[in-house]
Prior knowledge:
UDP N-Acetylglucosamine Acyltransferase, domain 1; 14-stranded parallel β-sheet; 10 helices; cell wall biogenesis/degradation; magnesium; eleven-stranded parallel β-sheet; Spore Coat Polysaccharide Biosynthesis Protein SpsA, Chain A; about 30% strand; acyltransferase; cytoplasm; 3 domains
Amino acid sequence: MSKRFAVILAAGQGTRMKSKLYKVLHPVMGRPMVQHVMDQLQSLDLSEIITIVGHGAEKVKEELGEASQFVLQNEQLGTGHAVMQAEDILKDQEGVTLVVCGDTPLLTKDTLEQMFHYHQEKQAKVTVLTTTIPNPTGYGRVVRNADGDVAKIVEQKDASAEELAIQEVNAGTYCFDNTFLFEALKNVSNDNAQGEYYLPDVIEIAKNQQETVAAYQTTDADETLGVNDRLALSEAERLMKQRINRDHMKNGVTIIDPLTTYIAPTVTIASDVVIEPGTKILGDSVIGTDSVIGPNSEVSDSQIGTQSKVLHSVVHDSQVGNRVNIGPYAHVRPASDIRDDVKVGNFVEVKKAVIDDGSKVSHLSYIGDAEIGKNVNVGCGSITVNYDGLNKFKTIIEDDVFVGCNTNLIAPVTVGRGALVAAGSTITKDVPEVALSIARAKQVNKEGYAKKFNKLLK
Length: 458
């Protein structure tokens, strides 16, 4: 198989987006459009990927990193001019070059792979990706010859009535014989109203040289969507969300309401997971089998084990074990490690804490900068007081401890194994193993004082 290359066109500013953010960096399902394109290209067997950058060049380079070589297009003088910028890297190479726009986030590796194969089967100098749409107004129509190859691509304004009836359109993605591409680009003229060099002019050059120009038609028109404004961006988001949810459901995930479920493309979900309505799963999250997420929950960059539940709650940048119950209305903040058979109940906040196997923090508590051992019960309203205004300190609660309700644990402090902490205590010193610790003011009852107090209020 000959070498294969790809050129991503990512230099445009995207004025129709009406944004200070450069067009190809606008996110679709949480990832910049150009990153979606790169993800698909990296799944192909390519010798080289070159990204043509212009507006926002440094930001695009930062996003794509070492996945690509970069060439700067100082002036944006058309798509043909953009590809010309890759000449120094590719001109002496034998093989096939794919040219794809950085604002086409829905293209898939399967379609691009099939396009490569079709190009080689046809021994074409150029292959155009096409699709059929019911209303092709505004698109260049693909006119085929008797052999099924491209006779010409005619723009809307230049099309005859017969050509306007054609529903097959140019999707703006191309495969080229690499040597032919850079020779042909030398003959592309900017003699047009915009004074720009257009890549599709290479097709006419190929036709004039009696070369084969093929057309590979994808049956999924959604893939070819190019994003030029916020309306198209919204449509791309909808279609990508639909695709991702559909793929998970095909792989054995139950999504109760796909319309209100948002799953990032980098998420891994095992079979027999149930995703309830109103749920977002983001980043590099992993959800284990038989778990239930939602309703109305958010999991981001976290690992959830098997048979666990996250109900009306938020989990960020954390590890959650097996058979864990979180929520309702709990917040697991970054760097938390919630181990097996743990309960983090309603209105509980956990931050940078380990909660070991079988422990329970059932309601209305804050556990921050803490290590909680196995089989610990933390009573309602208990707080690890971790911050003195300057520094954070750690609370350690060893195995089998019972912490009574409304307890303040003033860090740094350790509660020894098997100890009991009386409700309402403020613990400022370490508690020995199997001790009972009571740290609260002695109760004083002043008989009749309420009558005097009530008179003062009148």
